[in-house]
Target: F-box domain-containing protein
Amino acid sequence: MKKSYTISSNTENESCGSALNIRKQTAIISRGINLCDLPLDILEKIIQYSDVKDHIHIRGVCRCLRDVSNLAIMHDFRTALKYQKSLNPPNITGSVLKTIKIVTEAYISSGLENTFCGILLSVLKSNYKETNRRQLGLFVFHFFSLIDDEIGNVNHQQSVTLYNLTLIRLLKSFTGSCIIRRKYKPYKVAIKLMGAYLKTSWNSKPHVIEPKDLLIMLSKMLSADMTATAFRQCGETTYALHVFGNGQIVMESVPYTMFDFIISGSRKICSLFRSCVESNLENFNWPSNLPQDRYNFTFKIVCKDMLKSISSALTKEHED
Model:
């Protein structure tokens, strides 16, 4: 009498799974063990032991190792930032890291994390214990130089919108920042920075200021504002010579800088910028996709030192 045997479906699945794993392992052995075959968390720990020079070389090997490098850099940066936020009073290192976060978060949320990590590694060299405003200025300069190449033309829709959002969030981060007036249709809003000043001593092209130059100056001003540090700096930009800093140096009076914005466009565009202006920094929800509608974005900078009764105005227009 013949005996019949029944094999359950679970046993069949296990057998198929085992056979598949064996074939994968055999394939790996036949072609040689590859570093990228290791789990990402293991690779991240390995890369963390590399010095900056080797880390930069590793990023150029392949996309897999570059992505692992990004994970390690972002982890170290966020860990250092979290530690600095716990310190009271804040120090210059903490102010630099916080400013870097604010000036880049719009771009990271749009998928440009690789550019951020590459510049952060080369400028700060993974040293989050001793940073200064000179390194902050270098970071902002190189980051936005690469962003222009990454996105394309500097007047590209995405580039313009990300820059405008970054500018508004930088202004809202100042301690003395306040909205003094707003109007709708078109959307008009004025943001005033008490104690901060940005003056033009000489300008070869009146009413023009390069976006990158403005962000560098505002980043240094914000870093000083976070630590309540009085400073004054004279900087030469593409078309002008600017004097900017923290107004606590002036004891007899309090200077201020005011940004007047006019934004006209579709309902989606106006809603995006209204949310950016009127929401708290932590409560703003970054859109998964930026609106592609055409719009006009104009702002004027007015800086007044009450002691000397000096005022200057700069206008920047974005049309897309």
Summary: The longest strand covers residues 295-305. Residues 87-315 form one domain. Strands lie at 177-183, 187-194, 196-203, 232-236, 240-246, 256-265, 295-305, 310-319. The first helix runs from residue 9 to 31.
